[in-house]
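Late entry, evening session. Most of the bench is empty. Finally got around to the prediction I had been postponing all week. Sequence below, unchanged from the version circulated by S.P.
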Amino acid sequence: MRSLLGAVVFLVVATNSERFTLNPVFKEIFPKEYYSSDPPKGPNGTAAKVYVALHIMDIDEISEANMGFRLHTFVIDMWKDNRLKLSQLLENSSVRIVPEEIYSKIWKPDMIFVNSKGGYLFKQSVTNRFVKILDDGYLYRTTRYLFQVDCLMNLQKYPMDTQQCFLKTGLSTLHWMDEESSPHRNISLSLVDANAPLQFDVAQPRPHKAREEWIFTEYDYLYANFTFTRRLTARFVSWMRNIVEAQRYG
């Protein structure tokens, strides 16, 4: 009986081990000298372009006291690493999702969210992130974040104010996903969920791009611009009406 139980345990372990074995085709994608710390180059020898889109799920906690707001978004970025040998994988494998073991070894864009006061990468049962290899060899990554974003608000017209805020993202070669050079043009910036905070009306965000010169290099910055218009509640409108009537009839 004991030997039979041992055989069953061995069978289960072996089956699980085989089930989660890395697809051999992924082991062939790295050249002999590949360093994940070195960024890939484009066709003309310059830094490879990284294309970005933000699919915003929710905006809340817009606070003049804390001078900021909270942003729940999917950050989508896409790039091509010509050093990776993907031809065999693209021809012979229907598996395009990059496993974690390979993801940890490839170069990834390390974007800087400049005016984020804090960030959280969703990790519930597993990390909310995946990387897919597209038919033309581009790597397509989707990551789910929760950001606390800084915003210097102008309160001179409070409580009938409109606030202009933004999320600033930086890297050496950043481009919005809908630019003409993008091989997979798509909407760069969208507010997926129309639910707005009770205190504000939230307009559809607008993308903007700028380049800044530093001492030794230049950086591209992508701006996701937000417009928050404070709502006048029925109680406030009633209060204002009473003041106007009191002044009129003195």
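Two things to note before I forget:
The longest strand covers residues 50-63.
The CA atoms of residues 56 and 73 lie 4 Å apart.
Will write this up properly tomorrow.
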